[in-house]
Structures are given as structure tokens and as C-alpha cells.
Amino acid sequence: MKIKSYSLLLIILLFSGVACTDLEEQWYSAVVPETFFNTEQDVKAALYRSFTHARWYVQEDRWQLQEMTADQFAITTKGPHWYNGGENYRYHYHEWTVNDGWIWQSWRGSLMGVALALDTKQDLENLDYSTVGLTEVDKASHLMQLQTLIAYFYLRGLDFFGGLPIFTSNEGENIPRSTDKETFEHIEGLLLEAIPQLPKKVAGEKEEGALRMGAAAGMLAQLYFNAESYIGESRFTECAAICQGIINGEYGDYNLDPTWNGALGFYNNESPEVIWSAPSEFNKLQYDWMWNRFYHYETYKYFGLDGGAWNGHHLQPSRKPTGDIYTEFKLGKPYEKFDDGDLRKMPYLYKGGGKYEGMFLVGDQISPYGTSYGTQEYKDEVISFVDMVATFKKVGDEYPDIASLPSTMADGEENTGVRLVKAPMPNLADESLRWGADNVIIRLAEVYYMLAECKLRAGEEQAAADLINTVRERNFEDGNDPNPVTADNLDEYRMLDEWGVEFLGEGRRRTDLIRWNKFVTDEWWDHEASGSEHLRRFPVPEDALSGNNALEQNPGYN
Predict the structure, then answer these.
(1) pLDDT tens string 496-550
(2) Which of 80, 131, 403, 464 is deepest in the core (most CB within 10 A)?
């Protein structure tokens, strides 16, 4: 009879601080697997726990670290709101510390994800599936899904921190960090073993959160794509081969969605473009956290819904307080990077029946459903979101004219910045669709862009341009793209612009900047280049070092 050990899980939980909100298990010092796997539902419940953690993991603090340290979003101080003890400034200015919460939760979340998936995998390996009405084929699929999930958590942890402690069971304590290369090779080995044993997606199948062959192949492509950043080795050739295979259908049946919002909308679980996603449904694992922070306190009147929001996040400004576009830096300016004819650049408006247009809250917030009014600086005035950051209400009082206004993280107002509506919102008539769009983690457009960048780096500019334009054309009426990518205009900055436009707000921007060596060398709005290479990785959090004296800190943070 096997007695389970929870050493790794207990270490993580003892030093966890605030746990993820869906942690409701009761933990016992010893449990017997044979007593709790009695039915197929018991097996699925164990699987779901690991995937529920993954659903939490792909948003919240990991999303913040990817986006709020980069050049597309900001959380400015708005009157008395959002200073947060300087936290938002530290991430924007690259002055984070070993005690900052987003970093700790990301370290903890990565290793806890490994622990949960590894624990379940070990239990299911020893289970006779025939006793619960399942087959050996089911067992292989479940085990390899969990193995792929372990690889995913390690992949993200490698991206954030570099080498991690490598666990092959949950019985180890105070394990030191492996090297970057060892962690890279561990991830690679897990995925290479899992890929041929996972099922392929069949045309017409919905994506409901399970990991198929295409998802594991996509993760391996991501690993190779960023290998120079991770281990100083170019693996773009290997990445390109996998991407081409995914596009060719070797890992399952996937196709680009014909519409710009098909992979993002209310019914995106039916999109042929989605390779892996975290399911979301109104009042059932809905993922509303990060999008609520974009919306003004009264945005729900514009949507025609009830509820409230936090009025924190917004796009970094493309324009100075005077209205002139910034020309001092190439990065950032996300709203103006969208061509005027781009269907996504239209103001967001729900059209009914699950259909909508546009992707931004910009300009006067008046819709057929209601009007959003100010509650702070613009109290009782119609809110009009502007692509600028400045305290315009201080003109004539503290500043003589608009040209005198500063534009920094400290100068926000309640209407500051364009707001992103990446996950569509219905009105009350279709309330059941609220938060109904699944959180897409990997989609085929990313595969096209990875392959395009690989070809660009190989000197095949026209082939790269063709791949990007294949995705771009759906963003314009009748495919009439006014600014297509060409062999002549495609350079590192245009490539970064294309990543930024297509995947705005999808939690990847920091990684893209690092891969192109722009994260610590280039400027963007209210952000000067530090030139400090160690900032390409986050520090090992102080709480982690306190809980495991075998851990060593990353260079530059001692």
C-alpha cells in the first residue's frame, strides 16, 4: 500500500502567502490513492484540479509581469487611486525588488503547478484504469496531458526566472535550482515524450481545455523560439520546422479563423484557430480578473450591464498632451500602431446575438445602451477616453497651458488612456454570454508569426511577410490592407509591431522584447533604457529563499 508524501506541496503552501482563490482542498498527512479513485469522475476531478490551477496561472500576476513591465500598458496614478505604494511604478521603471508580490506569486505559482500535476500523474500511473471504467488509451492521454502541463509550468518559470528546481517526484525537500540549460532540456524531454502520445485534434472538435498534440508541439516551438534568451543558443531552425508542421496539420487539424475576432469571441471554443485555452463561462470559472481592471467605474453603463470595475489599466499613450504623436521612441504607442482601416481599431460595441465590433473603449462613452459619466476629475461629465496621459484639469491652475503638462506615471486622470476590450462583453439581454469567451493560451496565428520571425532571421523576408499578411488580411474590410508587410519594410521593429498589434494584451510582450534584445536597451513612454542585462530575468523572491536555503539568487539582485 502506497502512502503519499506531500513534501513539495507542503513546502510551497507553507510559504505561499495568499493562495490562489480556488484552493479549497483539505490536506492530510497521509492518504491512500486506492480509496479516492473509485469512479471515472474521481479521475477527472483529480485532472481538473491541475488544470484549474493552470487557468488561474495564465492570468493574474503572470500576465502583469509580462505586460506591465513592457511598452504597451500602464497603471498610472489617477488622483488618489492606483499608487499602490509605488508598486506600479517599480514594474514600469524596472525597479522591482525581491519582495514584490507579482514576482513571488509567479515563482510560487510555477512550482505549485508542477507539484499539483506531478502529484496527480504519480497517482494515476499506479491506477488500474479498468477499475474505474476507463482504458489504457485514456490513461496514456491523461498522463501525457499532465506531463505537458508540467512542461508548461517549467517553461513559464524558465522565462521568468531562468533555471528552476527540477522535481521528478513530490518527495524532495530543499532542492537547489538546476541550470538554465538543464531546465531547458528537462522541458524539451517532457514535451518530446508527450507529443506522440497525445491525441490529435480532429476538424470540428471544440476546445474545452484539454491538452492535445498541437498544444504540446506549440509549447516546444515556443521553447525553441526563445532559446537564445534562455540558454544562448539559436534554435530557430527547430522552431520553424515544428511551426510548419503545425500549419501543415501534422499535429492536428487547425486553421486560421476567417474573422479577426473568431478566436477571441464568445464562441471561441469552436474556432479552428484555438490550439489550447482555459475555459470560461458566466458564473462558472469566469476569468474576469484582468479585464475588469481596464474598465472605468461606469463602463458597465456603456456595455448595458450591471456591475462595476476598477479603472486601473490602460494602453500607454501614443500622443503627447498636445495631441502630437511621440516620435522620440519606436516602441510602444500601441493604439496608433493599428492602421485606421483596421476593424479592431473601431470603438467596441456589442451588436446583439453574440456579435460585436471593435476592440477599444476610446472617445465619448455613449452607446445605445447607456452613457458612462465621470466620478472623479470629470464628475457628471461624459467620460471620453483619450490616448494621452496628463492632468488636463490642472491647466489654468497649476499649469499655464496644455504644452506645459507633464506626462508620467503620476499624471493620470479617470479618463486617461485607451481601454482594451479583448474579451467581449454583452448587454443584459444576453447576460449569459458575459465572460463566455475562453482565455486563449495558444492559437494558430502565433504559430504563423513564430514561423515568420524564424524566416526573417534566416533572411527570407518575403516569405516572412507573406505569412504575416495571411493573418493581417482578415483585419480589414474585404481584406484590403492599406499597409501590408513587405520584404522592404519588415525589420525588427516592424516585426515587434506586428506581434504587438495581433497579440495585444495576450500576456507575451515582455518575452518578445527580450527575444529582440529591446527590453533593457530601448525606450518607450516614460521609460528610459537601463542597459542592465540582469533585468531580463526576475529575482528569486525573498520568501522562496527563506523557505529553501539551497536556492541561489539570480545575478544582479544580491
Answers:
(1) 999 999 999 999 999 999 999 999 999 999 999 999 999 999 999 999 999 999 9
(2) 464
